[in-house]
Structure formats: structure tokens, C-alpha cells
Specification:
Among the domains are: 87-187, no CATH class; 198-285, no CATH class. It is 33% helix and 3% strand. It has 9 helices and 4 strands, in the order αααααααββαβαβ. The protein has helices spanning 2-44, 59-66, 70-74, 87-99, 121-124, 142-147, 151-159, 214-217, 241-245; strands at residues 162-163, 211-212, 229-230, 284-285.
Length: 293
């Protein structure tokens, strides 16, 4: 019995070795065949990049905005079989699927740049052919883009002798304005402390002061200054300082917003027509209630 048992054991071991050798021989061949089939299938499936060479090569990315492109590709590029976001409907259906942001200050549905037939996402943003150096997929450099609608403000910035100079130090329209801000003054950005955007750069005017100028107390620099550009030094709204000051500190009428000049101020004399000759701390003072120092 022992020789017979040994023979059976040897036969079984031989079968195992033969099976292992066969598996090692056939497994690479099967893998290669599967890879060849997958490659052939991929090559047979139309890809967006087959026709749109300058666009993304990931079909899943294209389909997130354009929908399933299979029928479009199989029909030889029939444009009626693919979604093409255009105008108000395209912006609402496609762009706002991801970018519909609503906060207490920002809304895509309210404000000057709310989606409408005249102005919508695709008016300013170019998804595929944006300006290379502009953030947020803008279709053109920001100053050119804004000036296409806001011609008056653009002319002030370009042509007035005293103006904010865009493009210097990284300053752009959006440095002060929130493009998607809600109506009214909500289109102005605020500092982290909730202050006027002017104080982002002119922080020395912030205060607080012991004796504060009434105009500064309103936190509205535009009481005295033209924001975009002015023909007057320091971007003042009036040609002379006296004209500006007397809009609030006027001896005429009863609705003066500030104290009136004392009687010895003869405003017909040149010496009294430049208020800041004496009232030098025009924004505020820590020492003098009359802002003399």
C-alpha cells in the first residue's frame, strides 16, 4: 500500500504544478485581451476633444454645463442636440446651478448686475476664452470690461487730473465695488470692521478722534470727495475749500449741519476763504474741538 499511496501523491502534485503553470501562461494573455478591448471601446466612443481641440478633454466636465453629448457627437456635431448656455436663460439654468450665492450683501438676483436680458453672467464671463491674466474667467481686463457700461465713471478715472489710478498697486474697480452686491450702497465693499472701502487704503483717516469732524462721523467720504476723479485737488467736490465747507457751515438759512463761522470771519476776504489754513485737522483732532490742531 505504501508505494501506491506515494504514487497517488506524486500524481496529485504533478497536476497542481501543471495547473499553476497553465494559469501563469493564460493570465497575462487574458489581461492583455481585456486591456485591448477597453482601449478599442474607448477609441470607438466619441470624445469632446475629437472636435473641440481647444476645450477641456474631460467629457464629464463638458457635460456638467452642456448636458449629455452622445447624441450630439453621433450626429456629427448637430448643435440642436447639445445645450449651449446663452443669455439670461443659459445663465440661470447653467451658471447659477453652482454659483447661486445669496448673503445679506451679495445676490445674483438683485443689484445692478443681477441676471437680466441686458446683463447676465455671460456678459462679463467667458467660460472657454477668458482673459489669460484676469481672475474669475473675465472676458476682458476688468477696467475695459467695466468701462463698456460705466462710461461716465471710466472717463473720470482716465481723464480727471486728480483720480484713483486703476492698475497701480493692484487697484481695480472691484477693490471698492462688489460686482454682485445687493441694490444701493451694498455694491460697495466693506473692510473687515464693516467700514467704508476708502479706509482700506486711507487707514490714517479712520480715527477714532476725541473731536471728530461731523462729515467723518457719517462715515461717508463722498460728502466732500469725488470718488472716481475730480478736477479739484484731493478729489474735492468743490473748486474752493470755502465753497465745500459752507455747504454745511453756512450762515445763511437755518438748516446748517455744522457750526457757523464767527462774525469776524469776513468771507469776502481771501484770508477766510481757505478754511484749512487754520482748521488743519480737517478729519478730526485729539486736542482741539475746533479742529485747529
Amino acid at each position: 500500500m505504501k508505494p501506491r499511496t506515494t504514487g497517488i501523491a506524486l500524481l496529485f502534485c504533478g497536476l497542481l504544478l501543471a495547473g499553476s503553470a497553465f494559469a501563469q501562461t493564460t493570465e497575462p494573455a487574458a489581461t492583455a485581451a481585456a486591456e485591448t478591448q477597453a482601449t478599442a471601446t474607448a477609441e470607438a466612443t466619441p470624445s469632446c476633444s475629437d472636435c473641440h481641440e481647444n476645450k477641456t478633454h474631460k467629457a464629464s466636465t463638458c457635460e456638467s454645463c452642456h448636458g449629455d453629448g452622445k447624441a450630439h457627437a453621433e450626429a456629427g456635431g448637430d448643435t440642436s442636440l447639445i445645450d449651449k448656455p446663452e443669455g439670461l436663460a443659459g445663465a440661470n439654468k447653467t451658471c447659477l446651478t453652482c454659483h447661486d450665492v445669496n448673503t445679506d450683501r451679495i445676490s445674483r438676483h438683485g443689484g445692478m448686475h443681477a441676471n437680466s436680458a441686458a446683463v447676465n453672467c455671460l456678459t462679463c464671463h467667458a467660460i472657454h476664452n477668458s482673459e489669460p491674466n484676469a481672475p474669475h474667467l473675465l472676458s476682458r481686463p476688468q477696467s475695459q470690461l467695466c468701462s463698456s457700461c460705466h462710461a461716465t465713471q471710466s472717463a473720470s478715472l482716465r481723464n480727471k487730473p486728480y483720480a484713483h489710478r486703476l492698475g497701480r498697486g493692484g487697484m481695480e474697480c472691484s477693490s471698492c465695488h462688489e460686482p454682485h452686491g445687493r441694490p444701493g450702497r451694498e455694491n460697495l465693499r466693506k473692510t473687515a470692521a464693516g467700514e467704508s472701502p476708502c479706509l482700506s487704503c486711507h487707514s490714517e483717516k479712520r480715527g477714532p478722534y476725541v473731536f471728530e469732524h461731523g462729515a467723518l462721523a457719517t462715515r461717508d467720504c463722498t460728502n466732500c470727495h469725488e470718488t472716481h476723479g475730480s478736477s479739484n485737488p484731493k478729489q474735492l467736490k468743490r473748486a474752493t475749500v470755502a465753497q465745500l465747507c459752507l455747504e454745511c457751515h453756512s450762515p445763511i438759512g437755518t438748516n446748517a449741519a455744522g457750526s457757523q463761522p464767527p462774525s469776524f470771519h469776513n468771507l469776502s476776504l481771501p484770508r477766510y476763504q481757505n478754511c484749512t489754513t487754520c482748521h488743519v485737522a480737517i478729519h478730526g483732532s485729539h486736542r482741539d474741538p475746533q479742529l485747529l490742531k
